[in-house]
């Protein structure tokens, strides 16, 4: 991956006539200053764009020591009302809310208006109620990228149930663990999913998960019509059980701090954490970031290519766009099916104005050549964005030049599951861009760089990225484990939120995210703990010990490199390597498939038994000339053996 980035390489924003009039540079400066000088006033004004059942009078109410985060605390609202009903009430019922682009370009898509969305969400909400779900209950959603996934999320929000969406690529074990962790009694799924014409056996995966945990009911949406098993009394076809439900369902009045959703995400240790977001702050944050970051204008078509199983899908397919009354495109398939021009064909077909994707997709498509882009009329595009991992300047330039015709602004938006929405980005009408830099903090965001001792770094500097003040969209806790929340995010640097990312700030105040500084790897924009892959590997009967590291990968950003020691008496073989790859796929999901498996008789350990990951990372990167100090190793000769056996040559 070419990573030549220059602090002084500017790409100028287009003339304001053609873009971003919502916020000019001067407006950004004054709004940013106000958001810090008087956060209560600033956020009360943003919150005013929403419908509140009871308008909040308390705005910011947070403390980082001890950790207690609240926003709009005495307000009451319902986010489903704000995303759906209020647009219908305002006379916009005929506006298209969702455009569904199916996996196969030949299959029939759907245009769902706000009025239809309201009907569908009410039907789903009343069906969930009929099955016994109510306010505060956790509902698991394991769905393909079809509109019913969005209906299910909004239906939960409508009745006050807490949704926990699980990415459709996760395995039965991953489902079981998550259902168990949040004690979810309901699962909404589909018979099967489709991705690039391949079938994803969603219901079968749920069945397998339910051999380990139990739930009260499974609601099954018929999508492909494929053959599946239905268990009497537990499993219900949506089209059957929804028959005859009431066509009214009032939105449950929610306290601003009532939970909205749980989303599991990987950290450096242990199993994935159930990050919890609450209603009011998340609503205001996604409405405001969508409005300003994407400079949305009524009537425009917005396409975020993420899956609803990730936070990007939550915030920028569902809650951000819909609260703004936007038209959001939802794509079931993959970028290279039936051909490498699928994104651009769909952009042309639906006259997409704003397009938001991940660097891994850009790099993969870049490799196939620009002819796939050139075939299509992309003149509707006004703004293109990137999210999920650092975008290397080469990919940025390709995206800008070929997809954006060298004219359309690119926004590189840095944020996390825990931040609820965009935190650092240039604003399209306000800021010039630098390829490879996310840019400047959004309103209310106070980034701070600290060194490993926690000392604050001023001016142009590189360090660990912290955020010193709370913002409305911040996660409130880890579901059921507030101590883990504090430990993970607020204990490394006391009194600050630590992001886990490394970052550089240049002389212009632009931020350059350099990637994770913990044991989290980012594979094709999917966040994964190396510890999760290790746990999966050691579950295999032949494996004694495993150490997993990331290494730079041209397309995926990072690849997964696994060092494995076998139990005495077991022999390494190609066959076993293949078996272990399959094993990890089955335990976690296809996104965790190891790229390299390196059998080794021993791992490099210190005398106290700590694995020296620094050395393993270097060897995985094929950069063993600079291994640094190996003298503290219990057995330095291990290193030679590892270098000889390296897989990434
Ligand atoms: C939204 C999302 C969060 C991690 C984050 C960072 C990386 C996301 C980025 C980026 C550089 C960007 N990341 N956006 N790195 N530039 N524009 O991706 O959430 O899945 O929780 O991942 O992704 O490392 O800490 P999530």
Automatic annotation (TrEMBL):
Q: Which domain of life is it from?
A: Bacteria
EC number(s) reported in the record: 6.2.1.1
| Stretches assigned to the Acetyl-coenzyme A synthetase N-terminal domain | 28-83
The residues the record assigns to binding CoA are 195-198, 312, 336, 524, 585
Alphabetized UniProt keyword annotations:
Acetylation, ATP-binding, Ligase, Magnesium, Metal-binding, Nucleotide-binding
In this chain, Mg(2+) is annotated as bound at 538, 540, 543
Q: Give the transmembrane region(s).
A: none
Among the GO biological process terms of this entry, one is: acetyl-CoA biosynthetic process from acetate
GO MF term set: acetate-CoA ligase activity; AMP binding; ATP binding; metal ion binding
CDD domains reported for this sequence: ACS (cd05966)
Q: What class of enzyme is it?
A: ligase
Q: Which reaction does it catalyse?
A: acetate + ATP + CoA = acetyl-CoA + AMP + diphosphate
Q: How is it modified after translation?
A: Acetylated. Deacetylation by the SIR2-homolog deacetylase activates the enzyme.
Q: Output the Gene Ontology cellular-component terms.
A: cytosol
Give the sites modified to N6-acetyllysine: 610
Name the cofactor(s).
Mg(2+)
Q: Any idea where the AMP-binding enzyme C-terminal domain is?
A: 532-610
Any idea which positions bind ATP?
388-390, 412-417, 501, 516, 527
What's this protein's function? Catalyzes the conversion of acetate into acetyl-CoA (AcCoA), an essential intermediate at the junction of anabolic and catabolic pathways. AcsA undergoes a two-step reaction. In the first half reaction, AcsA combines acetate with ATP to form acetyl-adenylate (AcAMP) intermediate. In the second half reaction, it can then transfer the acetyl group from AcAMP to the sulfhydryl group of CoA, forming the product AcCoA.
Q: Which family does it belong to?
A: Belongs to the ATP-dependent AMP-binding enzyme family.
Q: What is this protein's record name? A: Acetyl-coenzyme A synthetase
The gene behind this protein is acs
